[in-house]
Amino acid sequence: MLIHSLRAAIIGVVPLDTYYVRLKITGRRLNEPPRRRTPQMAQSLS
User: Fold this and answer.
1) Calpha distance 24→3 (Å, rounded)
2) Which residue from 22, 35, 40, 42 lies 20 to 30 Å from 8 (Cα-Cα)?
3) DSSP symbol at 43
4) The organism sits in which domain of life (predicted)?
5) Is position 45 within any domain?
6) Would the pTM of this model clear 0.85, i.e. be above it?
7) Is residue 5 part of a domain?
8) Which residues of the chain have pLDDT under 70?
9) Element housing 7 (H / E)
10) Are 45 and 25 spatial neighbours (Cβ–Cβ below 8 Å)?
């Protein structure tokens, strides 16, 4: 019972976390103008 709920929590959390990170990256890319490409941003994206 405990293991099943823990596994369900992990399965539920992981796609949500990756979706949030992807949304944050795309939102940052859309909000900032293209000329403000910094090496730090390129490192964080890769």
Assistant:
1) 31
2) 22
3) H
4) Bacteria
5) no
6) no
7) yes
8) 1, 30-46
9) helix 2-31
10) yes
